[in-house]
Amino acid sequence: MAVEQITETRTYLTFTLDEEDFAVDVSNVREVLDFTNVTKVPRTPDFMKGVINLRGSVVPVVDMRIKFGLEEAEPTVDTCIIVMEVNMEGEATVIGALSDSVKEVFQLDPSQIEPPPRIGTRLDTDFIAGMGKYNDDFIIILDINEVFSAEELILFKETLDSPAAKRSKPVKSAEGDEPGVKISSEEIHPEEEPGEAEAEEENPKEKAGKTKAKKKPKSKTAK
To answer: Is the pLDDT of residue 211 over 90?
Structure first.
């Protein structure tokens, strides 16, 4: 995706890799999980850490540091797995992207996004959608659908049927129940409560005596 294709305000999730800030469009993000044990799959690339069993579905986990040619790091309390959908030719593949930490969800206007630099970056600019400016800092906006090749996506799907994937145990929190969720789907994709839009259209007399539905917090908008 070229920066010229970003023509409207969009919401992004930011995360860090080697002290560098990155962002992905939340339309590709499902949820963010605490780091958990990953079942290794033999004969896969170094950046392919293995798979996790998430609520009965096997999800391949990718170390984004290694994928981007950065030094591998030991997990910390902030390490997390960003569960995302990668789309290619109309087909979606769910992956878990291992990152150093997640930061926040916010909006960027097209005027706050510049084309990626031709030089001076450690990454392949083919999968950089642009450079976003937020709070006086520049953030690398990834086009996650361009990060992985068709061959790599095929490999991800093949791991789902591997013996290791079938042996993987369901992800659980420290308490032993549901997966440890850092940011839920509801927090990433807040929606208006049903009926709120209709209430706004009522005339003042019809509104009298009615209790207005509370609005859910909205994502921050960069200034």
So the answer is: no
Instruction: Look up residue 33 and give its two tokens.
Output: 């999980």
Distance from C-alpha of 4 to C-alpha of 114, rounded to nearest angstrom: 9
Rounded CA-CA distance 176/4 in Å is 47
CA angle 172, 174, 180 (to 5 degrees): 55
Residue 127 exposed, middle or buried by CB count within 10 Å (0-12, 13-18, 19+): middle
202: in domain: no
Provide the CATH number for the domain around residue 132: 2.40.50.180
Would 109 be classed as within a structural domain? Answer: yes
In a domain, 165, yes or no: yes
**Which domain does 114 fall in, by range?**
3-188
- Overall average pLDDT of the 81-100 stretch: 91
Q: Pick 205 or 162 by higher pLDDT.
A: 162
Tell me, what's the pLDDT at 121?
62
In a domain, 196, yes or no: no
Least confident of 33-42, 111-120, 128-137: 111-120
pLDDT of residue 199: 44
Number of domains into which the chain is organized: 1
Burial of 8 per CB tally in 10 Å (0-12, 13-18, 19+): exposed
